[in-house]
Amino acid sequence: MKLTSKRSPMVLVLALFCIALATLVPISPKTNAAFAAESEGMLCTNGTIVGGYRTFNLVATDGYTSEPDGNSIYDWSYGVMGNGFQLPGPILCANTGEVIDITLTNQLPVATSIQLPGFTNVTYNDGISSGAVGPVFDATGAMISLVPQAAPGSSITYRFKANNAGTYVYQSGTDPQLQVQMGLFGAIVVRPAGISVTADDVLNIPYYDGTASQLTNADAGMSAGEAATLASNAKCAYPSINNPAKCDPLAIYDGAVDGENILILSEIDPAIHTFMEQAFTAGDLASLNWNSYPIGYEAHYFMINGRSMPDTLAPNNAPWMPWQPYGAMAHVQPWDVHVNALDALLRYINVGNAAYDFHPHSNHEHVIAQDGALMKGSTAGVVNDNTEEKFNILINPGGSVDATFRWTNEESYDDVNGFRVPVAQPNGPNLNQGSYWSGSPYLGSEGLLNPGVLTKSQCGEYYHVAHNHDLTQVTNYGITFGGMMTLIKVEPPAALQTRMNLKCN
């Protein structure tokens, strides 16, 4: 699916609003993440290849993030060494078969660590001891960490091999109830190495026509030439069960810069963060642990990629949020078997305390993997397909889900070529729609504006909500709407943009 990489005027309006709020937010004494170019889609940190190992140098540090209601939150998090604080931690991208080294330097006033669920045979080296990771106990026999840790001011290196493709979380294994809540978490994305998507692969991507039968792109009329063109921009998320040298047809996605998206879901109890900030400021380092917090846990902010709505709509590296570098708005164009038949890929991770029920409006998503495992099996060469179209996607705490998304123009709306579906003019309560409206029900067209709306959308695009289905979690400290919510931007087809001279970019 063709994805675009620019923002609409509505996001620019939000940007100005957020800049105004940012002037009210105290700046951390620590160095915030460095400014970088704005972009859309998943933003990888690729590390460097050193001695045959893919190497990442991270730092555990503290800083402040901002919420849309003007609140400022004291956090701990991982950052890239030399780039300063950010939330969440960097998205570490690697390939299957690579041996990965993650060196963590601890700048926090308490010991911390990195736990790597989903990876086996993880080892550590802290300069004094080394070996396989495992629980750490104090002199009384009480467990103090799930994995070896780095004391304040020291470093530790974790090494493991990326055997399987998938989406994984990394997080603190030290006092995890507190430290993960404080922000010590991030994502690892492992892509299958050595797999190229061919024209035949694209022809065999399943095409769902709404019936029980499953067709392919070839059945739907895609030509070999069209498949070859699309294959040049396709990528693979998971290899085939029966043939690991090939890509699974359901795991092929658009390889454009914003064809791959990630949504790291989390929540914050601001009282815990304030308590830890005050203890640190007072020099009461003995209180920087979960057991010292005297009040019951209650989350009030719910976030995607370290941001709450409407900040989720801003691009990656929005300059008014350098400490929250990751956006969360997917950009798509209508699915078309001839020119735009590659789906978008969305990777979900849950680092919160409850299962999140995430719901994209307009079209279902096709869940293809959970916790780094393709939802298919093989018995005597017969593939058992457990992937499924989902109205709501349930992501369990500490887990991940990978899904593909396509937006289909079911009624073939076409204002340009004269195929119009009768649409009644809005009246009564329907007059007060939001500003994400073009004034027309047709992609690429603009019409009458609602009362009080001064500008139209950029190029006649649609916006569909994607949000946590627990409506108490789409709030900013109880105020609706906000929290764990974002939008999917559906733009007019590329050919229509050219024909109508639409400025969607």
Question: Would you write up a description of this structure?
Answer:
- The radius of gyration is 23 Å and the shape is globular.
- It has a domain at 28-192 and 260-298: Immunoglobulin-like (Sandwich).
- It has helices at residues 9-22, 176-182, 199-203, 224-231, 270-281, 494-500, and strands at residues 44-45, 48-50, 53-66, 72-80, 91-95, 99-106, 123-125, 130-132, 136-137, 143-145, 155-161, 166-171, 185-191, 206-208, 214-216, 234-236, 252-254, 260-268, 301-304, 330-332, 344-350, 356-360, 365-370, 373-374, 376-379, 382-385, 388-390, 393-395, 400-405, 462-468, 475-476, 479-480, 485-490.
- The strands form 9 sheets. Strands 2, 3, 4, 6, 7, 8 and 11 form a 7-stranded mixed sheet that branches. Strands 18, 19, 21, 23, 24, 27 and 29 form a 7-stranded mixed sheet that branches.
- The protein has 6 helices and 33 strands.
- Residues 1-29 have low confidence and may be disordered.
User: How many β-strands, per DSSP?
Assistant: 33
Structural class: mainly beta
The CATH architecture of the domain at 28-192 and 260-298 can be given as Sandwich
Looking at the structure, the CATH topology of the domain at 28-192 and 260-298 is Immunoglobulin-like
- Number of helical elements: 6
For the record, what CATH class of the domain at 28-192 and 260-298 applies? Answer: Mainly Beta
* Mean model confidence by pLDDT: 88
Kindly provide the radius of gyration, computed on alpha-carbon positions and rounded to a whole number of angstroms.
Answer: 23 Å
**Unreliable segments (pLDDT under 50, ≥5 consecutive)?**
1-29
Strand content: 25-35%
* Residue share in helix: 10-25%
Chain oligomer state = single chain
Distance between the termini: 16 Å
For CATH, the homologous superfamily of the domain at 28-192 and 260-298 is named as Cupredoxins -  blue copper proteins
- What does the largest sheet look like? 7 strands, mixed
Shape: globular
